[in-house]
Amino acid sequence: MLAKTYEKVNALFEESGGYMPTRKFLENKITTIQIKTLLQEGKIEKVSHGLYWNLMSGRSKPKNYKMLEACMTNPRAVICSLSACYFHGIIDEEPEELYVATQRTDRGGMKLQFPVSRHYFSVTSFDEDLMNIETKEGKIRVYGIDRSVCDCIRLEKEIGEERLSLVLEGYSRYSKRNVDHLLEYADRMRFGRIARDFLEK
Questions:
Q1: Number of H helices, E strands in the chain
Q2: Cβ burial, residue 150 (10 Å; 0-12/13-18/19+)
Q3: Distances in Å between the alpha carbon of 163 and those of 36, 80, 100, 124, 145?
Q4: Rounded distance between C-alpha atoms, residue 83 and residue 13, angstroms
Q5: Long-range contacts for 63-67 (Cβ within 8 Å, ≥24 apart)?
Q6: What's residue 189's pLDDT?
Q7: Are the CB atoms for 91 and 85 separated by under 8 Å?
Q8: What is the pTM of this model?
Q9: 149 exposure class (CB count in 10 Å sphere: 0-12, 13-18, 19+)
């Protein structure tokens, strides 16, 4: 390809915060054959179906790139439970798998380059405590801290006792926690007694 084509692609990526969908390539007269060439040459990285990261700039991906990529791949998805607790800073170690919530009726793709633990939530409670965090690279949809801790308790068998203990310890030190709010959510999800038992330990 011509040098000016590489320059054009690099500029388009920079305008988009480092990520770019196939649609934007095509809108700017970059063909699928040229996209394939860029991939083969190691100029770009395929993040998921129809989404790419720019390797030509030489910069590292943002800290929360997994969350960004999940939300870009499925704009209706929300970062939840253990991953949301990491985002809010109540646990220090990022989980190997990204915990993501989607509505039960959502069959949008979530095939990414890292493990994803996908959970299907009911439509009635799906938008509760949903936060939209704008970054220069894109939007992160994540649940608030009280709901996220509550969901960790609900998913205790998957998360494991050790990691749940770390979540609860971190939550006990979190200055903006609202235990009443957490328990209200737990009661609506019909596991209020279980949540109270964990919080009282």
A1: 11, 8
A2: buried
A3: 41, 15, 17, 28, 16
A4: 27
A5: 64/135, 64/140, 65/137, 66/94, 66/98, 66/112, 66/114, 67/98, 67/140, 67/142
A6: 86
A7: yes
A8: 0.92
A9: buried
